[in-house]
Amino acid sequence: MKKIIALILAVLMLVSMVACGNTNDDVTENTTDDTTEAPVVEPAKEAVEVLNGAVGKFCEVLAPVFEMPAEDVKGAFAGGYFSEDETTVKMGEAGKTPVDVEEAAATFKSVSLINDDAFAKLDDAAVFHHMMNMNSLAVSAMRVANAADVDTVANAMRESVGGNQVWICGTPERYLVVKVDNCVVSAYGLTDMVNAIKTALTETYDNAVVVCDEAFA
Fold first, then answer.
1. Side-chain half-sphere of 34: how many Cα atoms within 13 Å?
2. Cα–Cα dist 70/43, whole Å
3. CB count, 10 Å around CB of 136?
4. Alpha-carbon span 87 to 123, nearest angstrom
5. What is the pLDDT of residues 29-57, one digit of tens each?
6. Quick one: 37 exposed, middle or buried, by C-beta within 10 A (0-12, 13-18, 19+)?
7. Distance CA 96, CA 106 (A)
């Protein structure tokens, strides 16, 4: 009887060892499959980064028109920043200070002439405009939350700015819409200034795509 019990225990031990071996093999295989590296995705540019990146170049290009140094040209403009993280950046400055998001968003809408549907597709935006008269130059940079909506926002800006018929303190001469990655930049104002923005964007960003560059009818 003792021999039979011993034999049964030996068989059970052998089965247990085989089962453990199979389990370890499975774990090894799963570990190998999970080590596949994920593709690297480059972060999208922020709207304020795109606009700040072109401001220096813009001032250099426009300085001869004003017949003054580029730094003095920069002083004739103001900038603000709207985003979900409640920060503001003045163009050309690195520091950030808290602002009222609703107030900043309202200001951005009034300067950019963006419609509500297009605005709802943004998660970041920046503005840069002439301090005395926005019709001389007003530039808006918008980061679109979903890359698939970039063309929709770009076309909306073309229609919103180009179709605007209500102007105060004169009528702008030209308007421009440019795409940079998932950012859309629109500008309207005097021809020389809008052309300077176009030059600044296309020379600063190799992947800048001009959506429209047209004179007001």
1. 6
2. 31
3. 20
4. 12
5. 444 455 566 555 455 678 878 887 787 78
6. exposed
7. 19
Among 78-92, 174-188, 200-214, the range scoring the smallest mean pLDDT is 78-92
Quick one: 1 exposed, middle or buried, by C-beta within 10 A (0-12, 13-18, 19+)? exposed
Pair of tokens at residue 92: 């050309």
User: What residue has token string 């920046």?
Assistant: 126
Query: Which is it for the CA torsion 94, 41, 57, 168, positive or negative?
Result: negative
DSSP class of residue 147?
A: G
Instruction: Label the pairing between strands 174-180 and 87-88.
Output: unpaired
Q: Which region holds residue 84: left if phi is over 0, alpha if psi is between -120 and 50, else beta?
A: alpha
Average pLDDT over the chain, rounded to an integer:
77
H helices of the chain, where? 2-34, 47-66, 70-74, 101-112, 116-119, 150-162, 191-204
The domains of the chain are located at 47-215
Find tokens 């229609």 and name the residue.
Answer: 159
Predicted confidence band of residue 75 (pLDDT cuts 50, 70, 90): confident
pTM (two decimals): 0.73
The two structure tokens encoding residue 121: 């597709």
Give the Cα separation of 50 and 143 in Å (integer).
Answer: 9
